[in-house]
Specification:
The chain has 267 residues and is α/β, with parallel strands linked by helices. Helices cover 34% and strands 25% of the residues. Strand 2 (33-39), helix 2 and strand 3 (56-60) form a beta-alpha-beta unit.
Length: 267
Amino acid sequence: MDLSIVIVNYRSRKKLEVCLASIFQADNKNLNYEIILVENNSGEDLSDLVSGRANLRLIVSAKNLGMGGGNNLGIEAARGEYIFILNPDTIIQNGAIATLFNYLKNNPGVGIVGPKLMNTDGSLQYSCSRFPKVYMPILRRTFFGKYFAVLRDHYQMMEFDHNSIKEVDWLMGSALMFKKKLSLADGTFWEPRFDEFFFMYFEDTDLCRTAGQKGFKVVYNSEAVLTHDHARQSAKYPWYLAIFLDRLAWRHINSWIKYFYKWGIKF
């Protein structure tokens, strides 16, 4: 099998239905693919979505494993040579899946590739970034960002036109494609998995950083386009309220600390 598309669901059924419809309607260039849905213990019944479709499988997790853990569950069950991690709030445009697949297959030095993401209003979503300095989450989520806009915009690569293929530090985990098993220079293999040390947030940054450490490129490919109906759940309150009211904000802070504990503090 060519490709396994892994989609982790957590209370996202309506968006998931739209995502699945876009996959089935896309020009997938005769790819032999399967879709693995991981219901991450959110309580939603997805069994009717897989009924009658041989290439659509459902895994129901006994507990919420987090974003990385849920995707890992799907990866382990995957039969495809390549893996496409896809969020349920994405919509495939045209032949985006085949474009990423063919690029990855024809460029063995690339470990991870991701598409251009657009907001639902048609505007660009900044989905590739440089590795964060320790202060970057503060600049992105508080009023300090206004005073250090140059640093914040540099992190999000806003100077890049986003209309070309470019090697980057890391890509947003909403849509990532990679080979299930990669050969290393020393004759061993790397099987890309998310580090479950991160329950949610920074797991995509960490995976891309690991790919680079293993000697592989991470590439943003603007020739593949997806719409991402993204809501920053951890930023629904002002920063001064979020630390008291928002559990996801605490998840983000926790992962921020874990990331710099693992990779070291950079200023």
